[in-house]
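ARCHIVE CARD
SHELF: 3
SLOT: left
DATA:
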Amino acid sequence: MCGAQICGRTGNVKNGRRCIRIKGNNRNNTKITPPSICWWAKKKYEFKMQTKDYYTKIVVFLAVFIILLKNNRCTANEIELPKQFVASSSHTNNWAVLVDTSRFWFNYRHIANVLSVYRSVKRLGIPDSQILLMIADDMACNPRNPRPATVFNNANQHINVYGADVEVDYRGYEVTVENFVRLLTGRNENGTARSKRLLSDAGSNVLIYLTGHGGDGFLKFQDSEEITNQELADAIEQMWQKQRYNELFFMIDTCQAASMYEKFYSPNILAVASSLVGEDSLSHHVDPAIGVYIIDRYTYYALEFLEKVEVNSKKTMGEFLSVCPKRVCISTVGVRKDLYPKDPYKVPITDFFGSIRPTEITSNVLNVTLSTIPEDRFEAKAISKPNPALFYEQFPSSLFV
């Protein structure tokens, strides 16, 4: 019957909803089925099988796709970057975010810490326009400072880290958790000056340095508020999602500092902390002239290392991570490398503490065309001498004799 069915007792052929009577009362007589019914039933059967085969292929494809997706799914800790990306540096610029979160005179050392790092990155080539400096108090102008307008990181007073060209972007009560998070994520308020914005991009290597008072899972800001390690991790994740960094080096000098990078889950992060969870980060030495500790141990030895680094230095991040062993730091320095795809010993330290210097070396002779204007056309103008009466001694002690 070619797939046609017989209708009940009548011996009719069932074709869809219609029953067509056939000759004879023998319903088993399949030889007298009309040809049109046989052709339609055959086409219907072929269409049904084709549809079934089509849906079977779709189900198999989706099943294979889901299995592959499940097997290849990975967390941020398991991300494997292409060898070409890992082998060659792809960053095009450098930024530094340097934060001191403490105020009050007895926290002098924290400002010396951040200014020491500021001086180093600036010396190695990162311009002020790409350094965001946050200082919670002004020790240089504090009435207790016996040497006004100076901040030293050593009792021997070899280096005035405040200097004459320090550009502070966030000062005093501007140093808050909200402003810090807004700075990292790029969610600045309307009217925020360009100099107060982190204008990094997908090619930026970003250095974040924090110093102050911390605890297990938090960092205090001005003794009035805290940022937690989860909030910091989420802010950095926003940076990654918004393509605000290529690689990030996180450096923190506080008590229980390692707790602040425990929650990180974004890729391409290398982190170092001055102390592990449960440990204090200790100061280095006191300056008798001011009566307080002048610098922390970890930053002191980190600065000692950075002072020997030049723009074309071959020193690596791996060497920097081991600058302060426990015998000198007393606390245990913590390092986190699982989010970083490269070998730190193959990464130049200038990738984070220096600046990109695009140069092209050529052995060809370059012809430089000088000005065609005759020299006698230029008139030499006399330089006026400054009026001595306009300059006074900074400390006119002769007036009090």
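SLOT: right
DATA:
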Amino acid sequence: MGKICFNFIILLLIIGSCHAETVKFKNGVLKIFDINIRNKADVQKLSKYSNYTSIQFERSQIGTMTAEMLQQLNGAVNISLISVDLNVFQILPQFRRISLLYNKNVTVEVDTTAENNLQELEIRYASYKKLPEKLRCLENLEVLDLRHNQILYVNLDELSGMRKLRLLNLNHNKIIEFDSFLHKTINLEGLETLFIHSNQLVEVNFKHWNATSLRHIDLQDNKLSVVLSLLTSVPALEIVNLNDNPLDCDWKAFMLKEASVRKVATPSLRATNCTSNNDKMKPSVPHEVLEYETFKINGILKKEIFPAIGKLNISVNQNIRDKMIKVQNESNKISSKILQIENEAALKNTQLQLMIENLSDLFYRFVLKQNDLQKAKGIESEEGNTIEQGLSIEQKLAQIRKILESN
């Protein structure tokens, strides 16, 4: 009996040692295995790892990764949890990259009271059936990787406005709807790569997308017959994967032709089998072709016709401006000539006035001289014929007239 108890104790020690907490440091990442956090005392265990910037937990039991717990790791900016028994994980502003792998049904909570600096969020094999909540509060997020979950519906309103998001990876889910539930414009100006292959999509419509940077789209292995507004609403598109879809043959032919003109790569699309749609009640393909033809015409108008009209308007306006300038110059010349004539007339008038004054003064002096000669001969003037000094021209002329009348 004693031997059995001894062996049992040894077995427990062996099992306990197999699950003892172990730590490894490799390639700049601190890897912590088999750590168990059950109470506040256990939380203090984490404080000894506070100086590490990249930490990875594996095969551990944590339960709830609260803000209090994560503050023990105040130096960590990159954190990974792989196969951890975890219910809740709170995203703190300090984190730059978070990776949650094989953590079933973990709930991610976003701290909305402070600015979040998270740039990459990876949640895989977590059995998610919908997008995590409050993703738009992660305003600096650049990479969102939700591969290998159970997501059924993607409401793009929950992502619209994430201007820094560059890569969205939704591969290997069960998505049957991928659209704005409110039918609003989807603003993802910074999105460059969209992976959504291996899902259950029947329809995708890019008509209300504002994704001017989107270059690579992977939609392979879905149930798509057409992809609406793909070429009209994604101007920067460089590569699109559409193989392993039951594409409509007419739409496939249209896509191959226009993608070739646009120099958009379509890997394996030509070899992909297509289906003929004989249902005349579904005008998707003719409507799509008509929409794209209208788009091309608008493009020609914008690139060639409108600029030509603009140049013509510029030329006409320039001619009008040249003629107006010429008329203005001639008008200025005429005004200058008129001013010159007026100045010359004023000068001549001044000269004439001066001449009259000089002649009047000379004649006045002549009369004065004659009057003095008469006095010298003893001929006295009548009373009141005295010539006075300092008179104006008019006064002088009046005196001369008086003298001449008296003589």
